[in-house]
Amino acid sequence: MISLKDLISEEQDAKVIEKILPKVQEYCTSNEEIQYIAVQKKTLGVNFSPDCIALTNKRIIVVRPKSFGLTLEFKDYSWLNVADVHTKESFFGATITIKTVSGQTDSIEDIPKAQARRLYRFAQEMEEQKREERRERDLEDKRATAGGGITINNPNTQNQPTTAEDPMEKLTKLKTMLDNGILTQEEFDSTKKEILSRM
After folding, report:
1. CA–CA dist 8, 115 (Å, integer)
2. Domains, in order of start, for the chain
């Protein structure tokens, strides 16, 4: 579990972290770990209730104090649904913008640059990981909808009985899947060879 000391490495306000950390931990699910918290720091004027961004291994949690800090508003974005996190630095600080795969955006201004850079690095790593997961999930969905009974070298289904289907029809479906980018050339060749061997 992350400690208060771990979270004030880029000059976060310790009092704010002390107040926010237990609240965010209450919202964490099982196996969810807080990785980092960035705290807004306004350079012009005093900000008694700064906004915060908490990063976990499962999502981004934006915490916005309301009613002069008496209540907190939590908004979260699952990493699987985050399309992009980017930062724009100005003279005094940075703006972090979160964009979801559905096109929704959320921004927090006045994040100290060191915190924004660390938050950005972590977000890029998570985006890359989740982008690959989304790509694999999309491929599986496409294969499931377009497959129509074609098995692509799946060891779990190799010994199961299959219904009789015209080999030419299977080859036509297979070619369509290749043309649509659902199959790789290697998968196509392997499955084609298997179908032809049964003719």
Report:
1. 10
2. 5-140 (2.30.29.30), 150-197 (no CATH)
